[in-house]
Amino acid sequence: MTYPCNLVTAAWLAQHLNDPNVVVVDCRFALADLHQGQQQYAAGHIPGAWHLDLNQDLSGPVQAHGGRHPLPDLETFGQRLSAIGVTSAPPTLVVAYDDSRFAFAARLWWLLRYLGHDQVAVLDGGWSGWMQAGQPTTTERPTPRPGHFTPAPRPDWIVDIEAVRRRDAETVLIDSRSPERYRGEVEPIDPVAGSIPGAVNYFWQNISSENGQLKSPEALAQHWAALDAADQVIVYCGSGVTACVNLLAQTLAGRQVAKLYVGGWSDWCSYL
Description:
Radius of gyration: 18 Å
Number of domains: 2
CATH class of the largest domain: Alpha Beta
């Protein structure tokens, strides 16, 4: 059977919850309350879903430089994916969801694709959409099943601070944060306010509705139309998390995956 990639609906997922080749991952998280996502998962989740935590699973240890959410250790992350039943060949379809307009589900979506696993999608509407559709929920944790995930990184998908500094005039650098943070008017997280010189602002929430539904492919294509003349596109945010929402939206608009500056503003400002 051929599975959809990048985006699935609640109705589609409900029909495939018992498919052994589908693994559902709950990515709910809150930057302001580091235990909230795990508590929400314990209180109720999609049947069969596992929980992966942004800090503990989808990121590595924070260093002096590299940003607030560096990439996880690949061997450790591969073992974690294997433990929840994800297999590289034949590829398991991983469906990620959150309740934050894809802010954290897109991080897992991007991580898997960066590691060579293209059979991955996000749930349109997320947890709220699932609930509004009257779909089933549970508090039971799934039974472990063996998988075998082998990371196959695509190093050309990421850039570091030096590559951002050396970019040429034909490269479009996208800041995915809110307009206020981009303009340096507020900075609720990082120690320095502002943005990388030359960056343009595409707020990550502008690609979805308030209820967490992604805009149509046609609307997304129009949203990204100004990038058509760019030789290269680099996307960043505060720490390589919500930038992945913009990367997801670009693929749904029929564009190639742009490069991610993983460290983002939190890495850039650590050198100021």
